[in-house]
Design a protein that fits this description.
The protein is of the alpha+beta class. It contains 13 helices and 13 strands. The chain has helices at about 5-15, 55-60, 70, 95-100, 110-120, 145-150, 160-170, 180-190, 195-200, 220-225, 260-265, 305-315, 325-350; strands spanning about 35-40, 40-45, 90-95, 125-130, 140, 175-180, 205-210, 235-240, 245-250, 255-260, 285-290, 295-300, 320. Strands 5-4-6-7-11-12-3-13 form an eight-stranded mixed β-sheet, with helices on both faces. Strands 8-9-10 form a three-stranded antiparallel β-sheet. A two-stranded antiparallel sheet has the order 1-2. It is globular.
Length: about 350
């Protein structure tokens, strides 16, 4: 069904932004000149007269026939589980001590990005910066130093797909993308756009997804920390694996601990609709390893992901071991629980039929 002129923007505003379920993935920013991103919010700059409705098609929280979540889900195969399709799962950490130190846990993402860059698999990486006083945002890293400067987790959305859109528009290719499950879904939707979707998708040579249960609204988090008397520059956020149930904030003045129950009220509303914990649309998915400090869980999903990981291990860029059976069980249960919560939230919002 072809929409009337400007209908796409109107529906995106009414169905997603005004509903408060935008997850700040950045997919519409840089693709459309009428959307911008500033300090944790997607901002509508002006009325759009386009009849392409691309912003609606790519939004991971929009219901749209042809680019819905069912249309972009990975094809199942013999490796299909609660965590999606995969070829191999392991625990890993960077072989380089500096990379480990600069990373959140085992430094696997940074190690793989640097390896891909230095061995011709990519020319640049689309990452999330540290904000410099504002919310985290998208950035392009072109060397080891710039990749390491982006190390660590933010726990807030960054709209990093805006940086990807700008890079593609400027003609760049062989880009690595590190993103959350919603951003992997948005990228998959982008590849279905007409007439240039296939070309846009082909510009990304490696997709690294980050495990995500939910993301925090940056502005509301900032207000929460101010109320709690947290001053100074935040050096690091952390949510240790279960059973900690803590949110840690490391500042120049010291470490602050908060119960997760105090943080959940500032989680993005749109995260409740997400059914994907492990970034099933990525080539490689990475998260913290439960019960073993300094290691990551690494899910290898595609041929290119397997090739790069095998080479990185052989070249001592990564150290790896088998994932313990108990941890695998916990991971599957957590992923299944998120899928069921997301399904229920979608049913509550949209009813039994999708809104197309």
């Amino acid at each position: 069904m072809k929409l009337e002129t400007s209908e796409g923007q109107r529906r995106l505003i009414e169905d997603v932004i005004n509903r408060g379920i935008c997850v700040r993935c950045g997919a519409c920013v840089g693709l459309c000149p009428y959307f911008n991103y500033f300090d944790g919010e997607v901002v509508v700059m002006d009325h759009c007269n386009s009849d392409t409705w691309r912003c609606l098609q790519i939004c991971p929280r929009a219901q749209y026939e042809g680019t819905s979540i069912d249309s972009v889900a990975p094809d199942p195969d013999e490796g299909m589980h609660e965590i999606g399709s995969y070829k191999k799962i392991m625990i890993a950490r960077a072989g380089d001590q500096e990379i480990r130190k600069r990373g959140q846990y085992g430094g696997v993402v940074s190690a793989l990005l640097i390896y891909a860059l230095e061995h011709g698999y990519s020319k640049a990486a689309v990452l999330t910066d540290k904000g410099n006083g504002l919310s985290p945002g998208g950035t392009i890293a072109r060397n080891r130093s710039e990749i390491l400067d982006c190390g660590g987790s933010r726990y807030s959305p960054s709209a990093c797909l805006s940086a990807l859109n700008i890079a593609i528009k400027s003609g760049q290719d062989r880009l690595c993308l590190v993103g959350l499950p919603c951003q992997m879904e948005a990228l998959a939707r982008m590849s279905l756009l007409s007439p240039d979707g296939e070309d846009r998708g082909s510009r990304v040579s490696l997709k690294i997804g980050i495990f995500c249960t939910w993301a925090i609204d940056y502005r509301r988090l900032r207000a929460f920390l101010r109320r709690e008397g947290v001053e100074g520059t935040v050096l690091r956020f952390d949510i240790p694996p279960p059973p900690s149930e803590k949110f840690l904030v490391q500042t120049e003045e010291g470490l602050k601990e908060f119960d997760l129950s105090a943080i959940r009220p500032v989680v993005q509303k749109g995260c409740a609709l997400c059914q994907d914990m492990t970034a099933e649309g990525a080539d490689l998915s990475v998260g913290a390893m439960e019960g073993r400090e300094g290691w990551n869980t690494l899910i290898v999903r595609t041929d290119i992901g397997m090739k790069i990981v095998d080479e990185a291990i052989k070249g001592h860029w990564l150290e790896s071991e088998n994932l313990p059976v108990e941890n695998f069980g916990h991971l599957k249960m957590a992923a299944l629980n998120k899928r069921e919560r997301g399904n229920k939230a979608r049913a509550d919002m949209y009813g039994n039929g999708a809104q197309e």
